[in-house]
């Protein structure tokens, strides 16, 4: 990859009857009003979710168990940029937004471990949506001349681990080298010989070790 946000659950607890309701065996007028109020809130929340769905900013599916809208990870965008990397201002250090939750936690553990060893890891690129990846790929095609050559460095969206929220690009290269030698214990492995900065997360790597590196992203 070249170096160059989910709705809270609407948890409705069991309705608590007032002392009068319990003694009479039914809800009071105030209780009925409360129920109506709760129903109105739920209707408005549903309408808001539908409205967000219609904007196209984030593609939504529906959680089959909870029935609430959830974002499809491939469509969740990552930051377009970030502040300058504090140890090498040629790169940025963006927020790790949009990564799959377990990957985000693993990234935070990796960064903490590196920091304890005096190593600063800058997240030069992390999560990308399908649209962001498509733009990256189109730019690479323009730069390298053909889709085949471009794919050695930037995969199309359907194949990208950045889109799936599983990959990060770490800079500067000295920091990336530290991750290459130490990251597998936390599930991070460098995957491509031609991309010293690109790492992917899989919890199995922590026990099985890193798989053999591929020459490029198109070699798999």
Q: How would you describe this protein?
A:
Keywords: Carboxypeptidase, Hydrolase, Membrane, Protease, Transmembrane, Transmembrane helix. The chain crosses the membrane at residues 34-54. This is D-alanyl-D-alanine carboxypeptidase-like protein. Residues 1-16 have a biased composition (Polar residues). One of its GO terms (biological process) is proteolysis. By secondary structure, the protein is of the alpha+beta class. It folds into two domains: 19-71, no CATH class; 101-219, Muramoyl-pentapeptide Carboxypeptidase, domain 2. It is 37% helix and 10% strand. The chain contains seven helices and six strands, in the order ααββαβααβαββα. It has helices at 19-24, 29-55, 101-116, 130-144, 147-150, 173-182, 205-208, and strands at residues 60-62, 69-71, 122-125, 167-171, 188-190, 198-201. The strands form two sheets. A four-stranded antiparallel sheet has the order 3-4-6-5. A two-stranded antiparallel sheet has the order 1-2. A hairpin with a 7-residue loop joins β5 (188-190) and β6. The radius of gyration is 23 Å and the shape is globular. The two termini are 15 Å apart. The model is unreliable at 1-65 (pLDDT under 50).
């Amino acid at each position: 990859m070249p170096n160059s946000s989910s709705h809270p659950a609407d948890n409705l607890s069991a309705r608590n009857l007032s002392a009068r309701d319990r003694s009479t065996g039914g809800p009071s007028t105030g209780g009925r009003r409360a129920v109506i109020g709760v129903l109105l809130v739920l209707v408005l929340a549903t309408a808001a979710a539908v409205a967000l769905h219609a904007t196209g900013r984030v593609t939504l599916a529906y959680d089959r168990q909870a029935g609430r809208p959830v974002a499809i990870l491939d469509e969740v965008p990552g930051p377009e940029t970030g502040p300058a990397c504090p140890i090498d201002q040629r790169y940025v250090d963006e927020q790790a937004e949009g990564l799959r939750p377990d990957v985000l936690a693993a990234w935070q553990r990796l960064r903490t471990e590196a920091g304890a060893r005096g190593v600063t890891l800058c997240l030069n690129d992390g999560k990308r949506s399908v649209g962001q990846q498509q733009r990256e790929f189109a730019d690479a095609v323009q730069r390298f001349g053909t889709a085949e050559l471009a794919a050695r460095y930037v995969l199309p969206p359907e194949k990208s681990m950045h889109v799936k929220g599983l990959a990060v690009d770490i800079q500067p290269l000295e920091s990336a080298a530290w991750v290459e030698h130490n990251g597998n214990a936390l599930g991070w492995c460098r995957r491509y010989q031609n991309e010293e900065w690109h790492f992917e997360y899989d919890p199995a790597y922590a026990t099985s070790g890193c798989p053999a590196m591929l020459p490029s992203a198109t070699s798999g």
